[in-house]
Specification:
Blueprint: E1 14-19, E2 22-27, H1 34-39, E3 62-69, H2 93-109, E4 114-117, H3 121-134, H4 139-142, E5 146-148, H5 164-167, H6 169-176, H7 190-207, E6 213-218, H8 220-231, E7 248-255, E8 269-278
Parallel strand pairs: 1-5, 3-6, 4-5, 4-6
Antiparallel strand pairs: 1-2, 3-7, 7-8
Helix pairs in contact: 2-3, 7-8
Amino acid sequence: MIIRSCAPLISFIYTFRWASGAAAWTNTAQVSSTLAMSSTSSPIRLTENDNLPDLPPVSSTAKRIFWVRHGEVVNPGGDRPVYYGAMDVPLSELGQAEARAAGKYLKENTRLSHVFSSPLSRAIYGAEQVALAQSDGSKEGLESVKVLDGFKELDRGDWCGKTKEEIGDDSMRRFDACDELVTPDNGESYNALKVRVLKARDAVLQALQPGTSACVVSHLQVTRCVLSDALGIPTDKMVNLKIATASLTCIDYETSMGDDRGNEDGAGITQQVQYQSFKPQAGLATARDGAN
């Protein structure tokens, strides 16, 4: 594996918002990091059974993003798994270990210039583990995470807290097929989700220099949005993409005519998926991954 040098990690946590159609970064209060710092006492080791994917060096004209899903969560329904979407649910102990395994893999196989996160705590924890690993556990690394609102998980609105049976098979099938008529009250559709996710992706591409790599820690549906866009899969079919907890999807982005930014609609970007949903096992137990 090749480890590439890059600029130092940036030393503040930010929130990203769209203002007047343009990208705007604002400094925010730092997210509490006690759990992130203390959890590193449990060592994670990648094993020979992990079957690490081959990964060529990022080209001098491309921008590489590692899309990391958060680890296993504690479902708010307990033994009655319910949909939670954009609710801020916590990671399980296994989910925390999975996040550290993803950070360990990135530490051993690449050098990141930026680490981004969804605003939800389960993703922030994973991003902090990546940043800590990249900086050999320093506080400066922990403070480098940038939070982007556009990477928040799909908002399921009034369906939050309900099981699939309570929502109804027909409603869920129509929702997955992008039937806007069954969008839950106070929630959002997959089409609306994809628009905001790709805007946030383009903001990341604008922040990156060619030949460098970044990591985004987010969610199942967010990763499905960027992966389906890269593979040319229609939005109404993207629910078929399997994205394991704490797995990594690596996509390289080349922009046309020397433009070093992504356009809002993704025009002019050539995308190459290096691998999708690779999960470092690190000898961990199998995660429970039901309703989300």
